């Protein structure tokens, strides 16, 4: 079956997915997201939701399945590598998670959150010095992006 024959179309499903999320209809968003993930396995927004929801339910095999298929479809996506890392970390596969976060940073060197998660994996593996280096890299990224300047500590 070709895309035009599919009802509703993938763009329509994505609109429905976003509407369900906005309305906090998470079960509906999940059902729609599963359909989209088959048609577009590398859709970063859908995969983020499906992986996060699966991890929150402790359905780690499901989270890993979504993340692995997504990364296979778009291995150059920093975000998809990051989501794979979060699923692996939840499954306590710290070495593989560390590699996924390293891949995320390789594809997007400015991805500060990946540096922080990388540090967590290094700590879990007992690599304190490497964890400190990753934390310092995250702080450097935050400083360069302007996130450490301004009125962050002042009351509104």
Describe this structure in words.
- Helices cover 71% and strands 0% of the residues.
- It has helices at residues 10-22, 26-39, 44-56, 60-73, 78-90, 94-107, 112-124, 128-144.
- The protein has eight helices and no strands.
Number of strands: 0
As a whole number of angstroms, the C-alpha radius of gyration is 18 Å
| Helix/sheet category | mainly alpha
In the predicted model, the low-confidence regions spanning at least 5 consecutive residues are 151-156
The biggest sheet, with number of strands, parallel, antiparallel or mixed sense and barrel status, is: none
Strand percentage: under 5%
**What is the helix content?**
over 70%
Shape: globular
Overall mean confidence score, pLDDT: 91
What pattern of helices and strands is seen along the backbone?
Answer: HHHHHHHH
Alpha-carbon distance between the termini? 56 Å
Number of helices: 8
Short description:
By secondary structure, this protein is mostly helical.
List the helices and strands and how they pair.
Layout: H1 10-22, H2 26-39, H3 44-56, H4 60-73, H5 78-90, H6 94-107, H7 112-124, H8 128-144
Helix pairs in contact: 1-2, 2-3, 3-4, 3-5, 4-5, 5-6, 6-7, 7-8
